[in-house]
Each structure stands twice: as structure tokens, then as C-alpha cells.
Prior knowledge:
By secondary structure, this protein is α/β, with parallel strands linked by helices. The chain has one domain (4-292): Arginase, Chain A, CATH 3.40.800.20. It contains 8 helices and 8 strands; from the N terminus they run E-H-E-H-H-H-E-H-E-H-E-E-H-E-H-E. An 8-stranded parallel beta sheet has the order 2-1-3-8-7-4-5-6, sandwiched between helices. Helix 8 links the parallel strand 7 and strand 8. The protein starts with a strand and ends in a 5-residue tail after the last strand.
Amino acid sequence: MTRTALIYSHDFSACSYGEQHPFKVQRYRLAFDLMTEYGLTRLPGADIRECGTVSDADLLTFHSPDYLKRLAEFNCSTESRADFRYGLGDVENPVFPGFYDWTRLCTAGTVEAARLVTEEGYDCAFNLAGGLHHAHRARASGFSYLNDAVIAINRLVAQGLRVVYLDLDAHHGDGVQEAYYDTDRVLTISIHETGLHFFPGTGFEREMGKGAGKGYSVNVPLIEHTDDALFMKAFDEVAYPLIAAYGPDVLVTQLGADTFRTDPLSRLEITTHSYSYVLRKLKALRIPWVALGGGGV
């Protein structure tokens, strides 16, 4: 029997980026409630697990000490704060009470998901609040303060494991690509809307890695209004054979739903048909699987 784990905390929805901000964390509670009503949380072999914690040592495997210090300082402030050197305090990445606690919780969930599939025998662990893939080493970006995927993958690599990171979000997974651009221990694949006129303005075909990582960063930028047929073709002809050829010990996927045709921040025309097709094929690979929620309004 397949064993799956849903990483969930009521505190995922216990903050706010602001009334006018497009990123509404309340979606995590709504998604969990919907899953509960459909009986998905009571399926055989399906467990709900808490996030656990993430240590400063884990965070420092990617993020700079000065950046983390500033996050901790601003976390407790009751006044409006900003430090644009670190991407903090603008409209995109606001500073609000407890924001650092919240992003650490989300990151801890992804670290726990990775632990469950490698140490406790789970086939798949899904962190609803994971996939904050735009955070850089010393800069917040794209609603992301900590890069949970990188923190968790670094743990896996430290154990000697090879990882494939597949990003299906409408936006290029620039922060994760940055972390592994010069190594062959992690193969990063991102299928996204082209950055020609779209945030974060990266993820072009020529971005292929450097040094030992040459050829291990793969990008498939899609033009505006790409539909299901083209999306599935990109997966079948690029991502799927590369995953099989690389032979990872663990698969990490960022499953942002902002590719859907109804999302106001992107211009792709994807439906649930593409996602169910891709996820069924990934499941058939029978690779220990860490799934992350990602974007989507």
C-alpha cells in the first residue's frame, strides 16, 4: 500500500501579507478544509503530519548570516521596516509581525517532508505551504523569504543522495536554479512562462549551468497562452526522459497552480488535465517524492 503524508499546520494561515497583496495564505486552510470534505485526509495509508522545526544550521546551508539576522530583527518589529538591500519591505515582500516565524514554519514543513520519504518509508510527502522558490541567498523575492526547497535538498545532498527538482510553477524557479547552477548532484528542470515579459525575467534555454553543473540546469520557457497539449508535450519530451536518465534517489516537485488559465498573474492556459497527467506519470516512477504547493492566487 502506498504511504503518503500531508504536511499541515493551522499556523500556515495565521498571518497576512496585507489586504491588497495577491498572496493570500488563507488558501492553505481552505485547501485543507476542501481535502477533508472530500475524504482525502482519511484515505488508507494517508497521514497528516506536523511541520517540526528547522535549525539555523539548516538555513545557513543556503542563506547568508547577515540576511538571516535581518529577518530575525524585522520579525519582532511592530513598526514599518524595510531594507531594500535584502528585498525586504516593498510591496512584493512586505514585513509584518511574525513573517520570519511563518516562513521558517513553511520551510520546516518541507524539511520534514524530505525526512519522511528518506527515513520513514513514505512514498510521497506533500507540504501545502512549500515551494517558495524565488528566495535568493541574501534577498527576498517573489513573496519568498526563505527557499524551503533548497534547504531541504541540501539536507538530502549532505546524505549523499542525488535529487531531481522539477518546477511546474508559472514562474521560473530562479532561486533553486541559483543554488545548484554549478553542481551535478541536483538536476533542476523548470517548465514556466517565458521571462521575456514576465517575472522573474530568467529561465531561458541558454541557462544550462556552469562548471560541474553544465547541462544540469534545464529550462523550458513557454510562450503566453500555452495550452494543455503543449504543456504535456514539454513534459513528455524534455522533463520525463531527463528524470529517468538521471536516476535520482529523491524527486522534489514544485507544483504551483498559477499556470491555470484562471490565474490573474500569469498568461498560461493550463487546466487540471495537464497536472493530473503529469502527476500520474511521476507517481509511476516510484521515486521517493517530496511535493510542494508553490504559487497560485
